[in-house]
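User: Please run a holo structure prediction.
Assistant: Happy to. Please share the sequence and the ligand.
User: Here you go; the ligand is xylulose-1,5-bisphosphate.
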Amino acid sequence: MSIKAIIFDVDGTLADTEDGHRQSFNKAFAENGLDWNWDVALYDKLLKVTGGKERIRYFVEDFLSGFTKPVDYDEFVKHLHAVKTAHYTAMLRDGLIPLRPGIKQLIREAHAAGITLAIATTTTPENVSALLEVGLGKDWADYFSANGCGDIVPAKKPAPDIYNWVLNELKLASRDCIALEDSNNGLRSAQAAGIKTYITVNPYTCKQDFTGAAGVFDDLSDLPGFYRTTGLPLPK
Ligand code: XBP
Ligand code: MG
């Protein structure tokens, strides 16, 4: 059965974004008078939880001591996350976070070969569009038949919800698709949706467990090698 669709994760896969997220969280905390500083080592631990709002709650509830939650805790978290997202999208628009090696070429070649493309991510729609407007151009959305992101599903990765949402949008069976991910959370999410998953690692995820992945790559700089491994019907 030849592959009909590629479903892309965003953060860590399309671009090495997580340290930009981390810096943006820290700017939001400082602007709101909080002395919270997520260094790389702490952020590595916090990445266990997907979703920026969920990650802030995880930090408050599992890592902070002596912090009294404000009465409007949900609004407090949403506000912090909105400020963070404004800083992060500004970084993206300044071109500070380029697409990873091979990604732009894969998207263009696969789309030209008639393979359906989709996005399945935990991040927000504004982050997706800010990243891809810079990385692929204003018409970036034309490449994708479905854009599954953020809060549109009840449970974030590693739950399969976002991948099942994309499969439903594409009206394709999981066996007709492959997923490209970067993290153990992402691998478990795609696997739980029955999708064969390939991994490109990055500094935050390179030591994670990728048992069950169909292949693990440093990146897609050897695109012919990726085509051979996946059996994608593309230029070898
Ligand atoms: C990775 C995530 C996101 C980002 C932060 O998403 O878990 O939460 O870390 O972005 P992906 P937000 O599924 O693309 O790997 O603050 O917008 O959630
Ligand atoms: Mg990811």
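The domain at 5-17+97-230 is CATH 3.40.50.1000 (Rossmann fold).
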